[in-house]
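Aim 2, interim progress. The first record below pairs a target sequence with its structure tokens.
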Amino acid sequence: MLKKSLELLKQEAAQSGAGTLKRSLGAINLVAIGVGVIIGAGLFSLTGIAAANNAGPAVTLSFIIAAVGCAFSALCYAEFASMVPVSGSAYTYAYATLGELFAWIIGWDLVLEYSVGAATVGISWSQYLVKFLEKFNIHIPPQLVQSPFESVTMQDGSIVSGIINLPAVLIIGLITSIIIRGTKGSAIFNVIVVALKVGVVIVFIALGWQYIDPANYQPYIPNNTGTFGEFGWSGVLRGAGVVFFVFIGFDIVATMAQETKNPQRNMPIGILGSLIVCTILFILFGYVMTGLAHYTEFKNSAAPVAVAIANTPYEWLGTAIILAILIGYTSVILVDLLGQSRVFYSMSKDGLLPQVFSKLHPKFQTPSKSNLVLCVFISLFAGLVPISIVGEMTSIGTLLAFVMVCLGILILRKQQPNAKRPFRTPFVPLVPILGIVTCLVMMFSLPLDTWIRLFVWLAIGFAIYFGYGKKHSKLRKSQFENEE
């Protein structure tokens, strides 16, 4: 239960020169990183699902409620990020408030989320690439877009088994090479990708707006069917739970703290700014989508956006949406890999993981060896394991981190009320408590297999911590030295 003092964390944050991460990110870069991971393919699918099954046209209200729920945690993250501008995000914050064991639990859990997320998104990216290329009569052999455990039935009735999902492997390798060359280069690439992705969303909103049929908004909040969550206000709330997961991702901005210029000012801007930008885009997107087609038309549709586009003369928008999904997945992979390597970096610097994960490239000042190890592991996972086994990228670990951060704010306000806080979470203790309650409700709504996966992964983590991390902990060693 040893804790890192705020003074020690601030000393680590103030370090510069060889062996430390290079500060090269500004506020705009951080907002772009946040937007890059928040806006993914989920926007194009979950909006239709929430409208058809839960909220109807009032899915726009669901987005607002979900954004408010996220804002509670985002405000707590912003205070910590301004106080402790060190790489590691929730892992570092837990180390300062709850102790080493809790910090390990959070760090190890975030590693799982980022790994599974990057692998899953890489496999989905491959599937969308195949669809996109087919529109131009370019066909990749099916053996090279599936794992060895999958097979596909061809038009002539023959069954072809997969060898490796090559596009998934290549995209993860390509993104890793960009990350290794430096955070600034990664940020520039991410800004370009995000600009293209957001551009497609804005084009959909702008072009679709003029073809909105006001009759599709009647009734705006459909009458409840008699079952909780199926329309009515309970449906709006259930819809908020569905689209809540579209917002998750702003927390990865906090992992970039040690590579941020003037982090006391720019970290809160990056965290809150990305949430605000995405909330505005999501509300407008949902409004136009449910205005172009009646919400009942999205029922059982795998591509609800295509249903909406069919009510405009712009057929090419369908191809543009697939391109936006490809671009969106690319930026999600980039930010997942960035976030994971920075959590590993912080844990390694503290001695809880081997030093290889914190050694920096002599020229680029990035944890290149860590990036390469993660690239091999995640690439093999994405290339050889079916997406059904990898599982969808769940958010239980991120929600657990949110709970810990909100709890950390309550603890730190009581233990160190006079500590310097460049950004202060408003309405404490109300905001952190609401953040904890919101996240716990979301966690308990997740399926049982998600919890089983979490406990199995944590069991592996405990074995590593008590077998390696605890013995090599730098904080523990320094504590013993001081006692002697």
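The second target in this work package is listed in the same format:
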Amino acid sequence: MIILFNKPFQVLSQFTTDSDKAVLADYIDVPGVYCAGRLDYDSEGLLVLTDDGRLQQRIANPAHGKQKGYWVQVEGEPREEQLAALREGVVLRDGKTRPARVERIASPRVWSRTPPIRERKNIPTSWLQLVISEGRNRQVRRMTAHVGCPTLRLIRYRVGDWLLDDIPVGHYIRG
């Protein structure tokens, strides 16, 4: 079984917690499924869950090279050399990233976020579409910060062939 969930902002990618933070169990009432990869607390979008351990491993393990696509709202307007650095891979504390596919895009059609991102009157924001084939902890955020364009909002729209499509935020479908 596969579940495709549109994870809201500030929800943990786990079913239980000792804190008062929202978790998957607050949204998903399907027993026996587990995350195939995670999204951090501050990220939104597509989360794939399954009851198949082998499939979970093929999706989550970077050795399998499963591509993940993100819409990334960044601070500033990235210059071509900043985008080129992402395309070549950047050196982070835990090593060099694999090359990313990245391009500037118009603002995607997405839901409003609560709370909204911080706005600065004299600093513009831009949207990027970024595709990676690994999934290190907070990798996209660290990559954009490394090139001088901090991430303000991060939405995963694709994992392999699965797409977020029109799944409402906080809802899931069986894939």
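The chain is about 15% helix and 30% strand. This observation will shape the mutagenesis plan for the next reporting period.
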